[in-house]
# Entry
Amino acid sequence: MQQSGGSEAEVTWEDQQNINKFGRLNNRLHELDDEIKLAKETNENLEDASNELILTDEDMVRFQIGEVFAHVPKEEVEDRIEQMKEVTSKKLDKLEEEKDSIVAHMAELKKILYGKFKDSINLEED
# Structure
């Protein structure tokens, strides 16, 4: 398709699929950023709880189970917090891996789309 000021590349079905895929990946990237932020906050909170538990000299401590606080032996709470930290750390690692994969795939799509459309397409956030 030619215009008097310059040329525009024709958008094929495959190009449209790549543009749509880039949009979906970009949305997932933003979701992952939020999930990663939440997982990091949870990890920090668990670390703070673990540190506070070290400072206490009580044998029984209050531990929240669901919406209820129960008196639980200090050692059991320490074990539970460690397990929760491990689970959260694994989840955080998995989220970071997925984010890296998405960023790499988005870079490939950017290269393809910018290669064909040059300045006619904007795939940047700002």
